[in-house]
Design brief:
Keywords: Signal. The protein is α+β, with helices and mostly antiparallel strands and about 90 residues long. It contains two helices and two strands; from the N terminus they run ααββ. The chain has a domain of about 30 residues.
Length: about 90
């Protein structure tokens, strides 16, 4: 086969001439393999989408956690006289 290809290339045969040697049985096999690959891809995509839907449903069921109650210090304010009024000083 390689000798035939080399001869054709030396004689200037068109590169597509070798592609025509694919018989109908091989062509049908390639078409079937391609269709099988397409179906497998569709199935994998559907399975992935179903898995994502299940994960989202699980996430919705988990109740969001409430914020923890953190004790806060209240400011200590003092009234101090300042001239004719009072000023509040908070720390």
């Amino acid at each position: 086969m390689s000798a035939i290809l080399a001869t054709e290339m030396l004689l200037g045969a068109a590169p597509f001439a070798t592609a025509q040697t694919v018989d109908s049985a091989n062509r049908n096999t390639l078409i079937q393999q391609n269709e099988l690959q397409i179906l497998e891809n569709r199935l994998k995509r559907q399975q992935y989408q179903q898995q994502q839907q299940q994960f989202r449903a699980q996430d919705r069921q988990i109740a969001p956690q409430q914020r923890p109650v953190v004790p806060q210090m209240k400011p200590s304010c003092q009234l101090q006289p300042s001239g004719s009024s009072f000023v509040r000083t908070c720390r």
